[in-house]
Design a protein that fits this description.
This protein has one helix spanning 85-91; strands at residues 3-5, 14-15, 18-19, 24-30, 40-45, 48-59, 66-78. With 93 residues, the protein is mainly beta. Strands 1, 2, 3, 4, 5, 6 and 7 form a seven-stranded mixed β-sheet that branches. The relative contact order is 0.22. The chain has a single domain (3-91), classed as Archaeosine Trna-guanine Transglycosylase, Chain: A, domain 4 (Roll), CATH 2.30.130.
């Protein structure tokens, strides 16, 4: 298992996840090296960042580094300059 960090943008390393009604996030991502079930994804949010576990990953084939990923957030980390961890936890409880 590995951690794929989308917080810093660079060419060829991107994601477009949408929230679904069941609490999962689904969408395409571009990652060299691939994405596997059990990997951890990290991305920026308005209040800090989120960490999610990959539940499903389907390789698209073309482009070769594109995957459709389904994930579930396991932890949200607050940016203390914006909101406290306690406030963030309460807002998603």
């Amino acid at each position: 298992m590995r951690t794929i960090d989308f917080r810093s943008t660079r060419w060829g390393h991107n994601h477009y996840f949408e929230a679904k009604d069941d609490g999962t996030y689904y969408g395409p991502c571009w990652v060299s090296g691939g994405v596997s079930v059990g990997d951890t994804l990290v991305w920026k949010t308005n209040y800090g960042h989120a960490e999610a576990e990959v539940l499903d990953a389907k390789h698209c084939g073309d482009p070769s580094d594109m995957y459709f990923v389904k994930s579930k957030i396991v932890r949200r980390i607050a940016n203390p300059d914006i909101v406290s961890q306690e406030e963030l936890d309460r807002s998603f409880a």
